[in-house]
Amino acid sequence: MKNILFLYNPVSGEAQIVSQLDRITMYYQRAGYAVTLFRITRDRGLSHLADLIQAHQPEHLLVAGGDGTINRLVNYLKHKNVTIPIAILPMGTANDFARLIGMPDTLSDACNAILNGEVRQLDMGRVNNRYFINVFSCGLFTDVSQKTPTALKNTFGKLAYYVSSISELPSFRKMNIEVTADEISFKGSCLLLLVFNGRTAGNLRLASHSSAEDGLLDVLIIRGENIMESIKNVFHFLVRKKDAPYPTDIVYFQTRRLHIENDQSTSDIDGEKGPDFPLDIECLPASLPIIMPRIPEK
User: Fold this and answer.
1) What pLDDT, on a 0 to 100 scale, did the predictor assign at position 270?
2) CA distances from 110 to 42, 118, 145 (A)
């Protein structure tokens, strides 16, 4: 039998994964795999995973969780110089990256898509010495996912993020940032800066033109001269027709790398606390092996 390691975070999303372990194992055993479980916890993290990979030589890692769980796994593997395909069961609160790669929402369809899928080499982002799969951000709402208690996210799902976001508004102060790239230079006040490898943040489709296979990052800078006016215009943009242009409140460009100076310290990568400024961010093309649903031949 072929081997896989099944990594799961028991508190991701609505904490539903524990009740599904037997079902997932059944799908894999029927496909000829032996399954070894690896439980991810906040105190133990991913310690000794590299040793387990070396011992079992799995075909791939199956991970159940959200963007934060996948982010921690990718950073661990990169810093351990371990290259192995990753398959994702979307069981987090937002699952932005899983949706980017076309993973179905239902468990049976997701397992089937993985077992009949193909390995593709996707881009990823690096910020200083950390990696991100979906999005880097700083500014308004940046640390909402970090501050929102797990119990609240498990109970209310994405609604918990929006409730926590509203509570940030009274205390928010706009940033003064300087962004330097080959394509553009920006210096001024800013509400929010997003650097996408994916397309969505909290399931909000902000980077419609982004692709994880083009060797580029998509950058959005939401200007901060008039906070309420910018928020209103961004809201109208989010409920726009599909091909509507970005409003003037949003500076948008694509780049391979950029440098950011900021008078605030907080940043976020895939819902996890990011590094402090100044930051150098770059795209690492075709550096992340991911199992994706197979594209039907025409």
Assistant:
1) 93
2) 26, 13, 25
pLDDT in tens, 181-219: 999 999 998 888 999 999 988 778 888 889 999 999 999
Strand 130-132 to strand 2-8: parallel, antiparallel, or no bridges (unpaired)?
unpaired
Higher-pLDDT residue of 114 and 155 is 114
DSSP state of 41: B
Beta bridge partners of residue 180, listed in sequence order: 185, 259
| pLDDT, tens only, 106-144 | 999 999 999 999 999 999 999 999 999 999 999 876 655
Structure tokens at 249: 């409140």
Three-state secondary structure string covering the chain: CEEEEEEECCCCCCCCHHHHHHHHHHHHHHCCEEEEEEECECCCECCCHHHHHHHHCCCEEEEEECHHHHHHHHHHHHHCCCCCCEEEEECCCCCHHHHHCCCCCCHHHHHHHHHCCEEEEEEEEEECCEEECCEEEEECCCCHHHHCCHHHHHHHCHHHHHHHHHHHHHHCCCEEEEEEECCCEEEEEEEEEEEECCCEECCEECCCCCCCCCCCEEEEEEECCCHHHHHHHHHHHHCCCCCCCCCCCEEEEEECEEEEEECCCCCEECCEECCCCCEEEEEEEEEEEEEECCCCCC
Question: How many Å apart are CA 20 and CA 91, to the nearest integer?
Answer: 11
Q: Tokens representing 285? A: 């093309």
